[in-house]
Design brief:
By secondary structure, this protein is α+β, with helices and mostly antiparallel strands. It folds into 2 domains: 9-95; 109-172, Alpha-Beta Plaits (2-Layer Sandwich). 63% of the residues lie in helices and 18% in strands. The protein has helices at residues 9-108, 134-146; strands at residues 113-121, 124-131, 154-160, 165-172. β1 (113-121) and β2 (124-131) form a beta hairpin.
């Protein structure tokens, strides 16, 4: 049998073109959806990676902060120990001076005079004693003034007791003669 096509060829062509257009449009929409979903997944993965990096960095920052606090505590401890060491060195450095001061006190002591009390407050030595005459106190003051281990003496009181004279004087301690 013979087929007769009653539809015009233009309608058929338009229908085929329309079919191709909708097929292309459908494929483009599917490709666009896949691209959008892929891009979203890519960016989500990048965000997760950045979150992991950020948490690692914040953990490291906290670790460094704790180490920094530990270092500061160690520095404070070091400073305390250095201060203690300086104090010990100063005390050990002054130890021979005390012996030298006592030796010099004996050397400057005139006859017929003796010390009752010696009291040190910082660099000031307070001397209380008894003398038979006022001239002995004057001699002591001259001897102290002439000594390189003592400064100028300052007589604070002179009193009279039964057979002797009591006296109080202050004298500045020095580090001894200057060696060039």
């Amino acid at each position: 049998m013979v087929k007769i096509n009653l539809r015009s060829w233009r309608e058929e062509r338009d229908e085929q073109l329309q079919k191709k257009f909708f097929t292309g449009l459908f494929i483009a929409v599917i490709v666009a959806v896949i691209a959008v979903l892929g891009a979203g997944e890519y960016y989500n993965e990048q965000i997760q990676r950045q979150a992991v990096r950020s948490s690692f960095i914040s953990t490291e920052i906290n670790l460094l902060k704790s180490k920094l606090k530990e270092i500061e505590n160690l520095k404070k401890l070091k400073d305390k120990r250095l201060a203690r060491l300086q104090t010990i060195k100063k005390l050990q450095g002054d130890r021979p001076l005390i012996v030298r001061y006592f030796d010099e006190l004996v050397r400057v002591l005139p006859d017929e005079l003796h010390y009752s009390t010696l009291r040190r407050s910082g660099d000031i030595l307070t001397i209380n004693g008894l003398a038979n005459r006022n001239q002995n106190v004057s001699t002591l003051m001259r001897n102290l003034n002439a000594s390189p281990w003592f400064g100028e003496p300052n007589l604070t009181t002179v009193g009279s007791q039964q057979l002797s004279r009591s006296f109080n004087l202050n004298v500045q301690l020095s580090k001894g003669p200057k060696v060039d």
